[in-house]
Write a structure and sequence with these properties.
Elements lengths: L6 E4 L2 E4 L7 H9 L11 E7 L5 E7 L2 H15 L9 H10 L8 H25 L5 E8 L6 E10 L5 E10 L6 H14 L6 H13 L16
Antiparallel strand pairs: 1-2, 3-4, 5-6, 6-7
Helix pairs in contact: 2-4
Amino acid sequence: MANGRPNAIIIKKQLGGDTKNGTRHLHDHFKICPLKNTRDIKQSILRPKKDTGGKFSVGTYTFNEEIVRKDLASMIVLHEYPLKMVEHFGFRKFLSSLQPLFKVVSRNTVKNDIMKIYEFEKIKTMRIIEKNTSKIAITTDMWTASNQKKRYMAITVHFIDETWKLRSRIIRFIYVPCPHTAEVLCDVLVDCLMDWFIDPTPKRCEKFEETARLLKVSTSRKLVLDCKTR
């Protein structure tokens, strides 16, 4: 609006929108306007919605590339798809037909997006463990990949929350090289617990130091694993 009259500002020019100006000049400019084919990625798009009663209504949808990338990474993790699927011609063609505004990322970018999800979930799980007042049980499971003939270890923590519900969280899934001796598996487990800041309780550390003094055993190391002594 300018002086109470509608105007269109087009690249440092103003085209009058008053009724006496007509629309010829607007049509002429529209034919040569360089911005007529541009599309804002954040603009709203109409799409049908279905409510709980089965009735359809028209609502708005705003495309968000960050959300789509996060959902893509979550889908690959959930269904254990290979990262290279994002570079398949058929998959890219399908996404282009489904949402032309989305720029398909590479496998390295998807890998980075997955690691961001992991770091976010790790921080969230660590906060839950820090607030937990009950004891934590730790279990390990070995798994062999049939196509690679490699063995992996899954480390899971179990605890009862404030609502008395049993919770389980996988905190590490890691490749374990040969030989799979007790010492090797123990080192992998201890490294995981140290990375997650799951330390021995203070009372067990005090008991360990007291026992060492009574037995006159000199030691410069701390108790690294909280386990039952009897």
